[in-house]
């Protein structure tokens, strides 16, 4: 068809431009283009039922639009909350939610090709790759919830009215218990879901009605505090700390956090920071104090 011809022509142009033999710095883009071409041209992915990869693609596309055009969209209300909240609830109630992909990697970001010495690892990664039937939609759905709420106060109110905060609390409960202080990795699906949810709560807590809704769900504060135990996930801990700081706008949320040990948990991270590293000229990163 004409559509397939256009896709094929565009792929050939990109592959010629970024082929590693001609462009040593183009390996990542060449690999990403090949994956995109395979996805678009593989008609086996187009079944009669819902295609989870297509739904995931639509959710991520909306997240990208909101993250790039916040000022333009700030005055517009997001119209998809009924379906978004329903998606979050459906995914949360799915008994095979995380059995679909044991460690769901974010394939929206091009990854470098593995070395030949890692052939076995590559095979394992291919087994874990998300497909039309096993894609984890909860990651993309919670990310979109954050992007929309962070863009406009209208969206925060609409999310609350649609029962979105309650749905996020249920997803938070489901995912937070799967975290591990030894084996969890930043790209695990449950870790990314928890990160998106605490970001939503931090953004929503700017608005009184949303704070009231959060107060009515005291387990939310406990779940946020629980994330501070996972020092092997420093980025998630930072998001949790930011969420707690946002909670402190409200007196009762601040008291609730304090009563559940927020001060002690935060001080553990403060005392673990070595302020002498910079003075000694030691190179550090935001995610490590090693």
TrEMBL record:
- For region Disordered, the annotated ranges are 107-128
A cellular component term, taken from the record's GO annotations: endosome membrane
Q: Where is the composition biased (Basic and acidic residues)?
A: 118-128
InterPro entries from the UniProt entry: DnaJ_domain (IPR001623), GRV2/DNAJC13 (IPR044978), J_dom_sf (IPR036869)
The protein's matches in CDD domains, at most eight in alphabetical order, are given as: DnaJ
SMART domains named among the record's database cross-references: DnaJ
Q: Give the matching Pfam families.
A: DnaJ
Mind listing the GO biological process terms from this record?
endosome organization; receptor-mediated endocytosis; regulation of early endosome to late endosome transport
The protein, known as: DnaJ domain protein
Q: Which organism is it from?
A: Opisthorchis viverrini
Every J domain range: 1-70
Q: Output the superkingdom of the source species.
A: Eukaryota
């Amino acid at each position: 068809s004409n559509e397939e011809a256009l896709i094929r022509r565009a792929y050939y142009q990109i592959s010629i431009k970024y082929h590693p033999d001609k462009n040593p710095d183009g390996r990542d883009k060449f690999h990403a283009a090949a994956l995109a071409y395979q996805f678009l041209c593989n008609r086996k992915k187009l079944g009669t039922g819902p295609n989870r990869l297509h739904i995931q693609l639509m959710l991520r596309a909306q997240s990208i639009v909101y993250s790039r055009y916040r000022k333009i969209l700030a005055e517009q209300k997001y119209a998809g909350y009924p379906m978004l909240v329903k998606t979050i609830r459906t995914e949360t109630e799915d008994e095979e939610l995380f059995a679909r992909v044991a460690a769901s990697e974010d394939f929206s970001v091009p990854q470098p090709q593995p070395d030949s010495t890692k052939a076995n690892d590559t095979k394992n990664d291919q087994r874990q790759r998300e497909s039309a039937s096993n894609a984890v939609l909860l990651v993309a759905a919670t990310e979109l919830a954050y992007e929309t709420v962070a863009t406009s106060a209208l969206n925060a109110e609409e999310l609350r009215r649609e029962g979105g905060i309650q749905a996020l609390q249920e997803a938070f409960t489901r995912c937070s218990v799967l975290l591990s202080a030894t084996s969890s990795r930043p790209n695990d699906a449950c870790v990314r879901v928890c990160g998106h949810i605490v970001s939503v709560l931090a953004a929503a807590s700017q608005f009184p009605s949303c704070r009231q809704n959060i107060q009515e769900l005291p387990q939310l504060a406990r779940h946020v505090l629980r994330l501070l135990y996972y020092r092997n996930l420093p980025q998630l801990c930072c998001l949790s700390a930011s969420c707690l700081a946002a909670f402190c706008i409200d007196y009762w949320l601040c008291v609730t956090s304090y009563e559940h040990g927020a001060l002690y948990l935060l001080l553990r991270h403060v005392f673990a920071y070595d302020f002498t590293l910079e003075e000694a000229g030691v190179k550090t990163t935001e995610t490590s104090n090693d």
